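Title: Prediction job returns without error message
Component: structure pipeline
Severity: low
Priority: P3
Assignee: unassigned

Description:
Job completed but the reporter wants confirmation the result is attached to the right record. Sequence as submitted:
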Amino acid sequence: MELIIIFKSRNQTLRCANFLRSAGYKSKIIDTPLYLYGSCTLSVLTDKAGFDYFYPSAHSFASFTGAYHLRDGKYTRIF
């Protein structure tokens, strides 16, 4: 399962990607799909394990906007 984590700040997007990578989780910077609003145009693509690791620390990312689950080509907001 792939998840997209969205931020309003590019700096925090990169910080999140590095946060996940340094802990050994899948993390990739991608362009945010156009219909997912509230972003800096970049997002972090990760898996369920990566999001589960990120979630307790979400409060330390002030520009965190939300997370979306990719399923059958559609995105569903999960947080």
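Comment from assignee: result matches the submitted record. The chain is about 25% helix and 35% strand.
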